[in-house]
Amino acid sequence: MAVPARREVSTGAENGRGLVLINELTERWETVLTASGKDIRCSIHLPPAVKTMTAMAATSTTSATATAKGCP
User: Fold this and answer.
1) Torsions phi, psi of 3, nearest 5?
2) Taking a C-beta distance cutoff of 8 angstroms, is the pair 1, 38 a contact?
């Protein structure tokens, strides 16, 4: 199974922007190979207001984690 790699895409391309967006919007990211495919895990910087809202939501739910899945 091939690990996804960021690549340059032309402005007219209909695909290939997923990792470009992940790279631009996150502090860091990694690919993890799993038994069922691939996961992309990343860290995103949250402004103070969002951190406060996330902390409030975490107290009312059992989990405040999110995993992005679905890379072919």
Assistant:
1) -80, 135
2) yes
Q: Rounded CA gap, 12 and 4, in Å?
A: 21
Give the model confidence (pLDDT) of 24-48 as tens digits: 888 899 989 889 988 889 998 777 7
Task: Look at residue 65 in the predicted model and tell me its pLDDT.
Answer: 42
Q: Does the predicted model carry a pTM greater than 0.70? A: no
**Which residue, among 58, 35, 38, 34, has the nearest Cα to 46 in the 3D structure?**
58
Three-state SS string over the chain comes to: CCCCCCCCCCCCCCCCCHHHHHHHHCCEEEEEEECCEEEEEEECCCCHHHHHHHHHHHHHCCCCCCCEEEEC
CA 23, 28, 31, 34 dihedral sign is negative
